[in-house]
Specification:
Helix content: 10-25%
Shape: globular
Radius of gyration: 23 Å
Strand content: 25-35%
Number of domains: 2
Protein name: F-box protein At3g07870
Organism: Cucurbita maxima
Distance between the termini: 59 Å
Structural class: alpha+beta
CATH topology of the largest domain: Neuraminidase
Pfam family, one: FBA_3
Number of strands: 24
Largest sheet: 4 strands, antiparallel
Strand order of the largest sheet: 3-2-1-24
Number of helices: 9
InterPro entries: F-box-assoc_dom_typ3, F-box-assoc_interact_dom, F-box-like_dom_sf, F-box_dom, SCF_F-box_component
CATH superfamily of the largest domain: Kelch-type beta propeller
C-alpha cells in the first residue's frame, strides 16, 4: 500500500490541490461562457457549487448568474419536487430535482428548516417564485416565507387574533406589479362548520416589504383548509365547498393586483358542473381534476383563461392501484394531518414528454401516459412513507430583492 493511500492527511491535501486546480481552470474560461454554464445548472448543483471555495461562492452569487438562471429555467420549465412529511418524525422537508424518470438511482435530500425551534409543526400552504409559505399547524399564529435552497426566510408580522379560527392561506407574485403577497382568509370555526354563515370570515393581506397586514373585507364563499392553491395569470384559485343543499362547487379566484375575488365560469354540463375536483396548472392553463366513479378521473382544461366556452375535457385517467398501496403500512391517521386531509389521487403536473405525474393517497407517485393509458410507479431512494408533494420552481431569489 502506498504512503498516500494509507495517510488520510495526504489524501485530504491532494483533494484540496485538485479543487484549487479546478478553480484555476474555471478562472481561465471567458466570463460570458462561465456565466452561461452556471445558469444552466440545476438549482441543487448550483448550491453545491457555492460551497467549493470562496471564489466559486462569489461567482455563484453574481447578480447576472441569478438573472440568467431564473430566465433559462423559466424557459425550460425547470421544477423540483418537495416532499413534506409529518410522520413518524414530524415535519421534515425533502426534495429531488424533477427528473426525466429514466434514472432509477435518484435519491431525495433533506431540506434544513432554520426556524424549526420556533415552529415545529407546520403546513406548506403555497409555493411561488422560488419561495415556500409555511404556516403554524398547531396555533395558526405564525407564517414564514422561506427559500429552501438559500435558507433565506422571513417571519411575517402577527395577524389579527381570532378565537379558535380556521385559516385558509394563499401566496402569489404578480408579474406586472412585481409584488409578492400573502393572503389569509379567517373563519370563525363554530359558524363555519355548523351554521355555514360566511359573514364571519375576514380576509387579510400582507405585501412583502410592508410592515402590517391589511383587512380587505369578507369572502362569501366557504373554502376548505389544506387544498393546494393554483396560481396563474396573477391570480390565486381555490375550490369552494358546496353550499347547504347544493351539489355544485365554485372556482374562486383572487386577483393579486386589484385584490378582488372573482368566480371563474364553469361549463353548465359535464362532470365539472356537479362532481368534486381539485385545481392544478397544466401547461400554463387553469385545469380541474374531476373525481368520477370507480376511482376514475377526468381532467378539464380552460384553454383561454376566463372564457367559459374554452373548457375542454382533455384527459381521462383510469383506475390504478400503485404497488406501494398494496403493501401493508402503519396507518398514521391519528397523528398525521397530511394523511387526514389527503386525497385518493392528486394531479401534480404534466411533463415535457406529455406524461402526467400523480400522487396516490400521500404514499405513492405514479406516471400516467395519456397516449397509451399505461401507468408507471415512481420511487426515489430515501422517500418518506407518507408525504405531501409540492411542485416547486426553485430559485436563488432572496427575500430582500422582493421589496
Amino acid at each position: 500500500m502506498s504512503i498516500m493511500a494509507s495517510n488520510p492527511v495526504l489524501r485530504l491535501h491532494n483533494k484540496r490541490l485538485n479543487l484549487q486546480e479546478q478553480s484555476h481552470q474555471m478562472d481561465n474560461l471567458p466570463h460570458d461562457v462561465l456565466l452561461s454554464i452556471l445558469s444552466r445548472l440545476p438549482i441543487s448543483s448550483l448550491i453545491q457549487f457555492r460551497y467549493v471555495c470562496r471564489s466559486w461562492r462569489l461567482l455563484a452569487q453574481h447578480p447576472q448568474v441569478l438573472d440568467l438562471h431564473n430566465s433559462v429555467h423559466d424557459h425550460h420549465n425547470f421544477r423540483c419536487l418537495i416532499f413534506h412529511c409529518d410522520y413518524p418524525i414530524r415535519n421534515q422537508l425533502y426534495f429531488v430535482d424533477l427528473p426525466d424518470f429514466r434514472d432509477e438511482k435518484l435519491s431525495v435530500k433533506r431540506i434544513f428548516t432554520p426556524f424549526s425551534a420556533t415552529m415545529s409543526e407546520y403546513d406548506v400552504v403555497g409555493s411561488c417564485h422560488g419561495f415556500l409559505c409555511l404556516s403554524d399547524s398547531l396555533y395558526n399564529d405564525k407564517l414564514f416565507i422561506y427559500n429552501p435552497f438559500t435558507r433565506d426566510y422571513l417571519e411575517l408580522p402577527k395577524t389579527k387574533e381570532f378565537s379558535n379560527p380556521d385559516v385558509v392561506c394563499g401566496v402569489g407574485f404578480h408579474p406586472q406589479t412585481k409584488q409578492f403577497k400573502v393572503l389569509t382568509i379567517v373563519y370563525a370555526r363554530g359558524f363555519r362548520r355548523i351554521q355555514r354563515r360566511f359573514s364571519h370570515s375576514e380576509v387579510q393581506i400582507f405585501t412583502l416589504g410592508s410592515s402590517n397586514w391589511r383587512s380587505i373585507g369578507k369572502l362569501y364563499h366557504h373554502l376548505a383548509q389544506g387544498q393546494p392553491q393554483a396560481v396563474v395569470n396573477g391570480r390565486l384559485h381555490w375550490v369552494s365547498l358546496p353550499p347547504r343543499h347544493h351539489l355544485g362547487r365554485a372556482i374562486v379566484s383572487f386577483d393579486l393586483e386589484t385584490e378582488q375575488f372573482i368566480d371563474i365560469p364553469k361549463p353548465d354540463l359535464g362532470s365539472l358542473s356537479r362532481n368534486n375536483y381539485h385545481l392544478v396548472i397544466l401547461n400554463g392553463c387553469l385545469s380541474a381534476a374531476v373525481y368520477c366513479t370507480y376511482g376514475k378521473m377526468e381532467i378539464w382544461v380552460m384553454k383561454e383563461y376566463g372564457v367559459k366556452e374554452s373548457w375542454v375535457k382533455s384527459f381521462n385517467i383510469g383506475t390504478y392501484m400503485p404497488k406501494a398501496l398494496k403493501q401493508e403500512a402503519e396507518i398514521p391517521f391519528k397523528v398525521s394531518k397530511i394523511v387526514l386531509r389527503g386525497r385518493i389521487v392528486r394531479v401534480l403536473c404534466i411533463l415535457k414528454t406529455g406524461e402526467i405525474l400523480l400522487e396516490y393517497r400521500n404514499r405513492a407517485l405514479v406516471l400516467f401516459h395519456p397516449n397509451t393509458g399505461k401507468f408507471k410507479d415512481v420511487a426515489f431512494e430515501g422517500m418518506p412513507h407518507w408525504f405531501q408533494t409540492v411542485v416547486h420552481f426553485g430559485s436563488l431569489n432572496r427575500i430582500d430583492t422582493m421589496f
